[in-house]
Sequence to fold (73 residues):
Amino acid sequence: MKFPNYALGLFTGFCLAGLYFMLPTIIDGFRTPAEPKPEPQRFEVVDNYKGCDIIRWENSMLAEYKYFMRCDK
Fold:
């Protein structure tokens, strides 16, 4: 069975397009994995009040802080 020229052209084009889009993923698969980034610290002691720590808590990427007190007593 002989394929028409346009069918072979379509098949070749699809193969080249697939390779073009998959090539970055294939290359990244051979690289050594990067060190994971440490998560940003979400709790920070900012002050003391009458023997208690005042802790600033960050819950999101926004500059939205919540404060609470932690007492060891």
Observations:
- The chain has one helix and three strands.
- Residues 53 and 70 are 5 Å apart (CA to CA).
